[in-house]
Design brief:
UDP-N-acetylmuramoyl-L-alanine:D-glutamate ligase; 3 domains; five-stranded parallel β-sheet; 360 residues; alpha/beta
Length: 360
């Protein structure tokens, strides 16, 4: 059983019938993504939420039936009722479903099943940057027409889509449910002291992400983050998971191994110049990370082929909503909407003002 200080997530009871899912809190970031994906598969998706808005409109346009407010009658005809960690157990729809014998499943149970059923699967985890990296990876392998599930929508699209048998998903660590997923490729971006309502500290976060990563066939880790490096070190001890690193630190080590210390310093100098030039949001794209994940997704083609496929998609990547998104400009003041809420996220997601695009 996955436990937090405020919610307990029981283990999945078995395969879920996802033909007529009802989502309690369907407009939430993780719930709406699953709803979009299942609707794209032809499922009869319904859901309810207390706050309607753009998310509800997008879901309805995708064919979902969305109701304002929670009512027991909303669950009639559902094959499964899905809840998330923010939903109270006393919710009338949860109570009605259990009374009627309708299976009740946590959001993570649905994603666990989708990951298991996918032909190939990648789950991106970490305490921050997951949504952007998930959608960036989806763009990098766009030529494979992947399915995706993320906590934020890419510019001009939605946060869940049905495509090919390749599934790229964001894994949420905030309630420890990320440990349930068993993807072909696990990606760990970072591991910081976050979500104090759930974790006792950074070591606790690292342990949960290690449980997740140890269940994958391959692990791709950002070598620039101390917590992620610790996850990699622990997973290497299991022996059965192939561990691959990316990032400035990994590039310097590889350059030094091939061309000596001078080459490693040149790599570091180039990275510093890019940062001064404002290339911050594209750091992951410009690194070998996208290509390295793409190689594992494609089953290991040559580096040049994978890099070309990844590079074309990342060049076209326009970012995700509410992540350094330009809202507008008035009297020379630019307004940028971004969602980082913890100190470690801000310096990594905020490029110099000169690099912000002009708005209007």
């Amino acid at each position: 059983m996955v436990e937090t200080r405020y919610v307990e997530i029981p283990p999945p009871a078995g395969p879920l019938d996802l033909s007529r899912p009802h989502f309690v809190g369907i407009c939430g970031a993780g719930m709406s993504a699953l709803a979009h994906l299942l609707a794209g598969r032809g499922a009869q998706v319904s859901g309810s939420d207390l706050r309607m808005g753009e998310s509800a409109t997008a879901l309805e346009e995708a064919g979902c039936r969305v109701r304002a407010g929670h009512d027991a009658a909303n669950t009639v005809g559902a094959s499964v009722v899905v809840w998330s960690s923010v939903i109270d157990a006393a919710n009338p729809e949860i109570i009605a479903a259990r009374a009627a014998g309708v299976p009740v499943a946590h959001r993570s149970h649905v994603l666990t099943q989708l990951v298991a059923e996918a032909d190939r699967s990648v789950v991106v985890a970490g305490t921050h940057g997951k949504s952007t990296a998930t959608m960036l990876l989806a763009a990098a392998v766009g030529h494979l027409h992947p399915s995706w599930v993320a906590g934020a929508a890419p510019a001009g699209s939605v946060n869940g889509r049905t495509g090919s048998g390749l599934l790229i998903a964001e894994g949420d660590e905030s309630d420890r449910s990320v440990a349930l997923y068993r993807p072909d490729v696990a990606v760990v971006l970072n591991a910081d002291d976050d979500h104090p309502e759930t974790f006792a500290g950074t070591g606790d976060v690292v342990a949960t992400l290690t449980d997740f990563a140890a269940g994958a066939r391959a692990l791709v880790v950002c070598a620039d983050d101390a917590g992620a490096r610790e996850v990699a070190n622990r997973v290497r001890g299991h022996g059965d998971v192939q561990v691959v690193t990316f990032g400035a630190s990994a590039r310097r080590r590889r350059a030094a191994a091939v061309g000596g210390a001078g080459a490693g310093r040149q790599q570091g100098d180039r990275a510093r110049r890019r940062r001064r030039a404002g290339v911050v949001d594209g750091a992951y794209a410009r690194s070998s990370g996208g290509a390295r994940v793409a190689r594992r997704v494609r089953g290991g083609p040559g580096p040049g082929r994978a890099a070309r496929g990844a590079g074309g998609g990342t060049v076209r990547f326009a970012g995700v909503r509410r992540r350094m998104e330009m809202v507008g400009e008035r009297r020379g003041v630019r307004v940028v909407d971004s969602s980082p809420t913890t100190p470690p996220r801000s310096p990594r997601t905020s490029p110099p003002r000169a690099s912000w695009p002009s708005g209007g």
